[in-house]
Write a structure and sequence with these properties.
There is one protein chain. The chain is an alpha+beta fold. About 3% of the residues have low confidence. It has 2 domains: 115 residues, Sandwich (Immunoglobulin-like); 96 residues, Cytochrome Bc1 Complex, Chain D, domain 2. It is elongated, with a radius of gyration of 29 Å. The strands form 3 sheets. The chain has a 5-stranded mixed β-sheet, with no helix packed on it. The protein is built from 6 helices and 13 strands. One of its GO terms (cellular component) is plasma membrane.
Length: 291
């Protein structure tokens, strides 16, 4: 800021002086002023050296900040249209980012579809999440509370709704939450397979592209889909299939194998490695209820 003010004030007064000295009244006839090689070198070399000095100190401060401490608490962040999910090392999955206070938290950032922007304004963190490329960020929450988390990169239809929260808790309180394996997404205890299926679908972003009321969105509606016959395109050929347990499983693990007629290929990414067969069974139970 000091250098900026020096240049701002210096250049402003220089411009005002030139306006006064070379105005039309003092110079009714324009005169040719020869340049100065010495002056050109001075005002090129000095700013260049200043910029390099500032770059050195900025780089020296930035590089260590990119490397998370070795004892960081690791969390995987998965971005997809249009939500974030957070997976912890003990298998717990949430749609709100829970973190301990005063401890380094390292985030492994993954995108399932398009570029998203992982942005926590309160912690001054912003990192693009790029499909096919693993990135990372880290921070230390020094204050207890609930902080907003956004997607800062336009990612499609419901980009503006892609937001959630970071909940920073005292370490003792966080540890109690972390070891309680009965509380998964949003710390909600759900015993019903149907309710669990709905919860899983909500937290992997299914309802961003599919409706439950019969309306068409990015993908087919889930209303009355189970047991219903649909026309799909497989390998360039149309065929009729019945939506059953196996079809649902295949549609989740290999969504581009059978494309429902009237919809586009490549919009849904496979969930192999993200959803277990038990997760899919619970999703299927929920779909059966959407008559």
């Amino acid at each position: 800021m000091g250098i900026s003010f020096v240049f701002l004030i210096g250049l402003t007064f220089t411009m005002l002086y030139f306006i006064y000295k070379y105005n039309r009244k003092k110079n009714p006839v324009a005169t040719q002023i020869e340049g100065s090689t010495k002056l050109e070198i001075i005002w090129t070399v000095i700013p260049t050296l200043l910029v390099l000095v500032m770059f050195y100190y900025g780089w020296a401060g930035w590089v260590p900040m990119r490397n998370a401490p070795k004892d960081s608490f690791n969390i995987q962040v998965t971005g997809r249209m249009w939500n974030y999910t957070f997976q912890y090392e003990n298998g717990k999955t949430t749609d709100t980012l829970f973190v301990p206070m005063n401890k380094a938290v390292k985030l492994k950032l993954i995108s399932m579809d398009v570029i998203h922007g992982f942005y926590i304004p309160a912690f001054r963190i912003k990192e693009d999440v790029v499909p096919g490329r693993e990135k990372s960020a880290w921070f230390i929450a020094q204050q207890e509370g609930l902080f907003e988390l956004f997607c800062s990169e336009y990612c499609g239809l419901d980009h503006s709704y892609m937001y959630t929260y970071v909940k920073a808790m005292p370490e003792q309180k966080f540890n109690a939450w972390y070891v309680d394996t009965t509380k998964h997404v949003d710390a909600a205890v759900v015993d019903s397979p149907t309710a669990n299926g709905k919860r899983i679908m909500k937290n992997i972003g299914c309802f961003a592209c599919h409706t439950v009321d019969g309306n068409k969105l990015v993908g087919p509606s889930f209303k009355g889909i189970y047991g219903h016959k649909v026309t799909v395109t497989t390998g360039g050929n149309d065929r009729e299939v019945t939506v059953d347990d196996e079809y649902i499983k295949k549609s989740i693990y290999d969504p581009n194998a059978d494309i429902v007629k009237g919809y586009n290929k490549g919009l849904m990414q496979p969930y192999v490695g993200q959803l277990s067969e038990d997760d899919i069974k619970q999703i299927t139970e929920y779909l059966k209820t959407l008559k």
